[in-house]
Amino acid sequence: MAVRNIDRDLKTAARVCAERGERLTDTRERALRLILEAEQPLKAYDLMNLLGEEGKPAKPPTAYRALDFLTRLGFVHRVETLNAYVPCLDSHDDHDCAGPELYICEACGHVDERHRHERPGNPPKGFQLDRSVVEHYGRCAACAGA
């Protein structure tokens, strides 16, 4: 399992936002930090609890707006079948990819990511593909005893 450099990742996110004319607000940065620090995919409701203050969860729009922003910029990926979020492992320096391929361990919950660099499949004529996520389920090397 790769060790994350959270401070570096946050600086990269700030740089990418500046280059794209986007704002990495305090709430968005806190949400990204929490997802980067999480050991497993983080569900939106868990993020609401962690983003909240004085023992009260953040309001749903606060968390969902942050997640929408972070997903749109590619800083996090939504694990569709778990309805949870994981940080993107890409450096964002060359983000020309067809989307993530996620390998999800059903035993420990670890998610590993690979980026596909070719457009997926052969979509129907006239279909405009906006995003594609491929999820694989099984056991990671540690859980499989490799």
Oligomer: single chain
Q: What is the CATH T-level topology of the largest domain?
A: Arc Repressor Mutant, subunit A
Q: How many independent structural domains? A: 2
* Total number of helices: 5
* Distance separating the two termini: 13 Å
Summarize the structure in words.
The chain is α+β, with helices and mostly antiparallel strands and 146 residues long. The protein has two domains: 6-87, Winged helix-like DNA-binding domain superfamily/Winged helix DNA-binding domain (Arc Repressor Mutant, subunit A), CATH 1.10.10.10; 99-144, Dna Ligase, domain 1 (2-Layer Sandwich). The chain has helices at 6-20, 26-37, 44-51, 60-72, 141-144, and strands spanning 42-43, 76-79, 84-87, 99-105, 111-116, 134-138. Strands 1-3-2 form a three-stranded antiparallel β-sheet. Helix 2 crosses helix 4 (60-72) and helix 3 (44-51) crosses helix 4.
